[in-house]
Amino acid sequence: MAKAQSIATRAQTLGELRSSGYASRSVKDEMRANLIAKLKSGGRLFPGIVGYDESVIPQIVNAVLARHNFIFLGLRGQAKSRIIRQLTELLDNEIPIIAGSEVNDDPVAPLSAFGRQTVELHGDETKIDWISRDSRFVEKLATPDVTIADIIGDVDPIKAAKGGHLLSDELTIHFGLLPRANRGIFAINELPDLAGKIQVGLFNIMQEGDVQIKGYPVRLPLDVMLVFSANPEDYTARGKIITPLKDRIGSEINTHYPANVQLSSEITKQEAWTSRPGLEGNTLDVPDFISETIEQIAFEARDDQRVDKRSGVSQRFSISVLESAISNAERRALITGESEIVPRVSDIYAALPSMTGKMELEYEGEQIGAPRLAKDLIKRASGVIFEGFFLGIDFEPAVRWFDEGNKLLLSDTASAE
């Protein structure tokens, strides 16, 4: 934050704010300046985001430096929403607004009729509030039933009656989510699900700064960074982004799944719930071959023709499977009284309920069923990881022993001993 603005945080009135040397700037200029400062200091831009350092993050940086509105395009479970929420770190810690403003009116350049009238009435004695960066982020999941009233606003008859205003007066408007995100970030997830007429309202605000509410034209030159997300399959399956809106989105940033098992495993270990309370005296040890096998299952599923490629296989697949495998090992340790909790391959099979609901199947997959397909994926993934861990070892005698009809039967609750 600029020095003048940090000094200005003490201001309680418009007069104090002006005398402090405060200079307002647009939200995109603010984010650009704070991003430049972070890049110069060598700070990490998106903590917890793994595997995007050479691909997605440079594109985000370029979009912010260019002051673009942008859209994340990618399959489910590719950290789109998480990155969008972390964009607030590029905002100032706090900014001043006119006290009581619904649309975060800038005290030195008010947007709404309320803000302008307040400054005209009170002048330098206009009261100032300060809002944090988290209060400047508004997120909306797009659904077909979203209306212009939800996004832009609607006439409020009660406001009109109480204030004695005409319905065409701007003071009678109950503002929607977008105006309330003024001087902040407005994010819409799954943009293609938004009805066409709502998308039209969005690009009018983006380009011309005007909108019609109940037939009355309203000028709202909003200062907003607009960020969207979409799944490529939604362009045809459930809806589409209308061409004029696409044309007004400055950058299209494509996300992706981790490039290799090691990166995927790093993400899963970071996100999975492994610090289990209530097990004092017990230790958890997840062997590398177990975590890598779980990641390999996800990679096998993404390549399998029986799994729908357009839906993808989310990173949440691996996270849930690891948590379930650990839980099965935890259950076994509680039954057998073991102090060390160590998942084994059979625990991955016990995690089938965490797999079957996270794969959208093609016709062939539907025919054999999700449980059977999941077992097949475990089998293939185990083979890939096994070969990597035991490369160069001759297992022919062991294979021959099983081929001769010998069996080794172990109960799911058999202790390690």
Residue stretches low in confidence (pLDDT < 50, at least 5 long) are: 1-5
Q: According to CATH, what is the class of the largest domain?
A: Alpha Beta
Distance between the termini: 60 Å
Q: Which word captures the global form? A: elongated
Q: Strand order, main sheet: write it out.
A: 4-7-10-1-11
**Domain unit count:** 2
- CATH architecture descriptor of the largest domain: 3-Layer(aba) Sandwich
Using DSSP, what is the number of strands? 13
Please tell me about this protein's structure:
The structure is a single chain. By secondary structure, this protein is an alpha/beta fold. It is built from 20 helices and 13 strands. It has helices spanning 3-8, 14-19, 27-41, 56-65, 80-86, 113-122, 148-151, 157-163, 177-180, 196-207, 234-237, 243-248, 261-271, 288-303, 315-336, 345-350, 353-356, 363-368, 370-389, 396-403; strands at residues 70-73, 94-98, 128-132, 137-141, 153-155, 173-175, 184-189, 210-213, 216-219, 224-230, 251-254, 283-284, 340-341. The strands form 5 sheets. Strands 4-7-10-1-11 form a 5-stranded parallel beta sheet. Strands 2-3 form a two-stranded antiparallel sheet. A hairpin with a 2-residue loop joins β8 (210-213) and β9.
